[in-house]
Structure prediction request, 702 residues.
Amino acid sequence: MSLNILVTGGAGFVGSHTILELLNVGHRVICVDNLCNAFGAANSKLPESLKRVQDLTGKSVTFYDVDIRDKDGLREIFNKHKIDCVAHFAALKAVGESCRIPLQYYQNNITGTSVLLEVMAEANVFSFVYSSSATVYGEPQKLPLDELHPTGSCTNPYGKSKYFTEEILKDLCESDPRWSVISLRYFNPVGAHKSGRIGEDPNGEPNNLMPYISQVAVGRRETLKVFGNNYDTPDGTGVRDYIHIVDLAEGHVSAIKKLAGGELKGFVVYNLGTGQGYSVLEVVDAFSKASGRAIKYEIVDRRLGDVASSYADVTLAAKELGWKAKRGLKEMCEDTWNWQKSNPNGFAGAK
Amino acid sequence: MSLNILVTGGAGFVGSHTILELLNVGHRVICVDNLCNAFGAANSKLPESLKRVQDLTGKSVTFYDVDIRDKDGLREIFNKHKIDCVAHFAALKAVGESCRIPLQYYQNNITGTSVLLEVMAEANVFSFVYSSSATVYGEPQKLPLDELHPTGSCTNPYGKSKYFTEEILKDLCESDPRWSVISLRYFNPVGAHKSGRIGEDPNGEPNNLMPYISQVAVGRRETLKVFGNNYDTPDGTGVRDYIHIVDLAEGHVSAIKKLAGGELKGFVVYNLGTGQGYSVLEVVDAFSKASGRAIKYEIVDRRLGDVASSYADVTLAAKELGWKAKRGLKEMCEDTWNWQKSNPNGFAGAK
Prediction:
């Protein structure tokens, strides 16, 4: 079964890896991205990440430089292509920045999604995969986090925008039975494609642990800041459920397969994680081994809003999507390092 | 002190009554309304409600037929007028409809507000009064409801759109100290201006009790439906905190005065209610006395999402805004009836 899949935000980290897997299983991809966080599109019709996806797969991606808030722009794309399903990655995602410019976050993430959904309905397209986040669970009331855990006590505009959008999707599905929506709640995506040709390329100082570590390892940054070592965890540092980006991408392939099967109706959520938590210091250690480099770090104050531990109950996705993460921490570190060392400045060094 | 106040949604029930009071105390009003729920604008530059406000006050309102999601349209208005403060009423507000067309509710109420706030910031206007609702409290955990009661467990898209917007306003104020925002949480606005020239004019079957009763009294509808008489209340019917629309309008005048004073910073909420709850049957009885008409009613099933009792703690607004509701249930019913009997078909009968 080969589908026409519209991917929004496809130039980014999760989007580009997902497109690669979608192409590999034989789907056709139409990508929409406003390139606000992507590198290398100025002199080219394609952002650098998608050029490399084409190289790696030997297949082509149809690309539109369109903002999802641009209703007419989206309409044109739906008129040109018979879309079967939409995978929606386009969003702003930096927690700290979201506190500084909340309106832009709400406009990009909520208004953007609403406009996209309106245009989909006009075009009679009702299959939707949403990039959600474990942040919607707020402070965990119990661990592991399963999909029935309450949502909503988010402390920053980024997290709220993910939670609000899930509520909008739920209301939409209740209002109109034609919709089938899968919301995938990501835990902590890391790693890179095995080739080392695509990977995570954050702007400025990374918000997340793994890219920070790898920039220290490659010499771009001096010292890793570890935010607190007095949490109630085995070594005192925060514990998270890291998931390899290729596993995450495969989770999307499984979700789209499920939607195409037609028996899923309404709004359904799945955790995408491994079910296994690792502390900051465990990740540092694993990365150090994978890269053969010492990672200098210092303990600094906790960050506001960080929880001690977060990891997923992954039984639902296994049962209903037939999907399970296969790659462990060692492979996550090796693949991150492989990408980082051959692209020390991310896509910016591309020839 | 005379200010230039931009009023969005000023053609509606709450908006028009507030404009009248703002004009009476000497402010100038610029009104923006897309007229999606207003009568009589086709053959005129002004909707019927605002024509009558002009008649009643002897003052004029500057009116723009603009949708608040239209950024360029709003920008033009802010370029033309030196706005001191915005009172934001424009929103869709029917609970049942919000469940049928949720995206339109989210687009009007959330996207609309975000666009308005963006344009305000561009124009260096940072004083904002928001039309919120007691619905943000969800199911009351204790009564009376004070402003510290938790918010967010709303069961329908209308209520969620009010709650989400409050969160957006809170985040905005935290991100930028120039903002001063008062969110007014309305309990159940009823009644009409003493003149009987302006009042509530719902489209189709009324969602709310008082307009329903008054349409029964005037003969437009046969029988009032009372949704449940087995609640845990003195007579089994739902108890609500009804507030006279002129009191509510005066609450806005007080809020704007407070903002203009300059000492209030950030995001602040106030309940607007009387603090006194009345049951459905008490309102029926009071209306019957005020109108001299029998009100035929029948008991039907509860409505999903209705709570047994809801009434406000009103001490905060009294203390900080110097505002208190002055009009009782008798006056609410008399003024509603005065409006209804001289306008049996609302503004539609206007010459």
